[in-house]
Amino acid sequence: MAIPSVFYSNTANLILGGKLSLIQISLGFPLSFTYFLFMSGFSEEFFFRAFIQTRFSTILKSKISGVLITALLFGLLHIPNIMR
């Protein structure tokens, strides 16, 4: 996720134009990877798996139903990002 995000911003122009040094690029990748890992990946997984999935599983008394509904909600909430 960190690599494609570079190309949606001005960073791609800086890299391709040679305005960023190799040190800046090599430091930027691990930092952006860590940022996206914790800001989107970890928080989404925690919210959907630990919060929503357990609630639906408890309400419906079925772990499979909880997983399926959570997966459906997760997919539906990501449609705007896919359409962009």
Descriptors:
single chain; 84 residues; mainly alpha
Describe the structure.
This protein is mainly alpha-helical and 84 residues long. The chain has one domain (2-83). Helix content is 83%, strand content 0%. It is built from five helices and no strands. Helix 3 (22-60) packs across helix 4 (63-77). The protein starts with a helix and ends with a helix.
Summarize the structure.
With 84 residues, the protein is an all-alpha fold.
How would the blueprint of this fold be written?
Blueprint: H1 2-6, H2 11-16, H3 22-60, H4 63-77, H5 79-83
Helix pairs in contact: 3-4
Estimated helix fraction: over 70%
Q: What structural class is derived from the secondary structure elements?
A: mainly alpha
Number of strands: 0
The secondary-structure element order is: HHHHH
What proportion of the residues form beta strands (DSSP E)? Answer: under 5%
Number of helices: 5
* Mean model confidence by pLDDT: 79
C-alpha termini separation: 15 Å
Radius of gyration: 18 Å
The biggest sheet amounts to: none
Instruction: Indicate the low-confidence ranges by residue numbers.
Output: none
